[in-house]
Every structure is written in structure tokens, then in C-alpha cells.
Amino acid sequence: MNVLFLNHPESDYGGAMLFTGLCEALGAEHVYDFPLKLSYHGTTHTYTLPSGDPGVTCPLPWSGTFPREHVVEDVERINDLLASKFFDFVVLESLRVDAVHAFDFFSGMIRSSNTPVVIADGEDSPHIPWRELRRIQPKIFLKRELINNGELHKPSADSTECGIRIVGFPFSAPSSAIDQIEREEGEPWRVVFSAGNTYKLRQEVASAILKRYGNDHVFVALSPDNENRLSGFENPGLLPWEKYIARLKNALVGVCVRGFGWDTVRFWETAYTTTLVADKTPLMYANPYVSGETAFIYDCSPEDCIRKIDEALSNLEASNRIGSAGIEHTRTHHTNKARAEMLLNMI
Q1: Torsion of CA 258, 324, 333, 248, to 10 degrees
Q2: How far apart are CA 137 and CA 117, in angstroms?
Q3: Rounded to whole angstroms, how far apart are CA atoms 251 and 230?
């Protein structure tokens, strides 16, 4: 099976997760990204912004270094491959303008060859872009922030609307990279909470954790922006991603709070490494986590978050069992590769 992966030059967590997952599931030699995005191949990608200023996209710390031997940069060659039905389906990485322009350029041959189209929407907004969906007419629409906000006739994690299959498709865990990182040595941290100050509940939860546990927890500020850091911590410094994962692996519990969207990268990193304590969200997706079985889910208040942490720490045998079940649940259903395999089964 071969895939034409139409992308844009900007950094895109959801796009990178899907690209990585498809490469892991199919083999990188079967995934053709166009235009070439160097950050998907291990080097920095530079481009020009609409303003004329330079843009830079660096490889994400967990993204693989995929070979470039099969990369096709000749648009006529892409058209020839489409005409010969070489590609089994086309992925539109995003509805950002550059990706849409790439699709529009090849749309005539995509339609004449009856190649199925998949659109991925990894943005923070729950709005469904009906105008573009009706124009492009994809077979499948993968929606990260899929919630019941009144825009669906039959709201569920997998439904068909206007002939388009709409599927909840949140971020996922970069399992291949996490598996290569050793657990941090030393006594376990009781609580690890990593976040920038992008949503008010994060500061409220951080302050409650600080008040309850003092310096027995650690806060890792992954944002270098001082104005975006949570306050009240002795050392809110920047940790390299590998050390952050190593520390998560050495935590009794890891806490997650939503960010700009309901979904957040930290949720999946935490779920794959330790016992997850996470806020309840309205996200619709297949194989969700169940409180008391695969995670501890709190009701979006700092008070209930503390209650769930206390519950986990007061019975480590039970919480370790829940944590192990959660990690296995994530490994089975919510890694980059598992997401890609889910899509391949739909195709």
C-alpha cells in the first residue's frame, strides 16, 4: 500500500504523528510526502512565510529520521503515479493553506483516478470545516478535537455525515521513541506535572499540587517562554524531552490538564509512561480511558485532581495496577502506529 502525504511547511504535531505512524505501519518507503518536508526526514526545514520572512520547522524530538531515497519532488511524476493508481489513498495533512494548495494542484488527477482522500484536522478548534469538506469530498475526515458541539447529526467517535466518515482522531503516543529512553535513576517522584500556562486550570492544579505536596513533586516547563510558565515553583526550567520522559517513567503518578484544546500531547506521553491522572474531557474517540481501570479521571477542578492523586498514592498496589493497564491500553490503541493502523483498516 502506498500513500501520498500532502503537507505544509509549518510545525504540526498531529501531522507529524500521522506521518510517523504511517511510516511505522507501512514502512517509510511507502509514504511519499509532498512537498518535501525536511523536518520529517531528520533535518531542519526552512521556508518563506507569506510576509516574506523566513520560517523554520525543526524535527520533533520523537519523530523518526525517515529515508529520502524514494522522495518524489517532480510534480509531473506525482501526476503520473496518481494516473497509474500507484497510490492507494491520499492524505491531506491539514487544511492549512499550503496543504490545501498542494491538494488543489493534484485534485484533477486524484479525482479522475478515483483515489480516496483522507483529511486530517489536528487543530485546537472543535469546529468542523464543512465548506472545505463539501468541496474536497474526502472519504474520511480525521478530527482531533471531535466533540458534541451541535455540528453533527449523529455525534459519536465514528459516524457518517454527508457521505463523509468523520472519526475522532486525537494526538497519540510516540511509543518507538519513548521505548528507547531509560527510566531516570533515583527515588521515584510522587507527582510529575508538566505544562505551560495555556489554560487557567493548569495554574490552579499546579498551585494545588504545590500546596499539597511541596517539593516532593516536580514541574517541568517545556516552554522556554518565561511569560508562559506556571508560577510558584522553585525550578520551572526547561528539560530536554528525553529527560522529561525519563522522569515521567520514574513518577508514581503523572498529571495532565488540557491546554489550548481539549486534547494535549502531554496526555498521551503520560498515559504511555506512568499512572495517568487526567481531567475529564468531552473528546469523542475510540477506546477511551476508564477511571479506576486505565486511569484516574478528575472532574476538572483542582480539588478533585488532588483527591485522585491522594487516592492513587494511598494505595500504590492498586494504582500501579491501573497504571500498567493504562500503559498497555495506550500501547494497543493510542500510539502513532496504532492510529495509522486504525486508518488503514478504514481504507
Answers
A1: 40
A2: 8
A3: 20
Helix (H) or strand (E) holding 186: none
- List, in sequence order, every beta strand (DSSP E) within the chain: 3-6, 31-34, 45-48, 54-57, 89-92, 117-121, 140-143, 158-161, 164-168, 189-194, 217-220, 251-256, 276-279, 296-298
d(CA 122, CA 145): 7
Q: At residue 339, what is the residue type?
A: R
**Pairing assessment for the beta strands 140-143 and 117-121 based on DSSP bridges:** parallel
What gap in Å lies between CA 67 and CA 242, rounded to an integer?
A: 23
- Residue pointed to by grid coordinates 510529575: 192
Instruction: Give the whole-angstrom CA distance, residue 227 versus residue 110.
Output: 46
Mind listing the pLDDT tens digit for each residue in 253-274?
999 998 888 999 999 999 999 9
Tell me the β-bridge partners of 161.
164
Residue in the structure block whose three cell numbers are 510534480: 75
pLDDT digit string, tens, across residues 110-161: 999 999 999 999 999 999 999 999 999 999 999 999 998 888 877 889 989 8
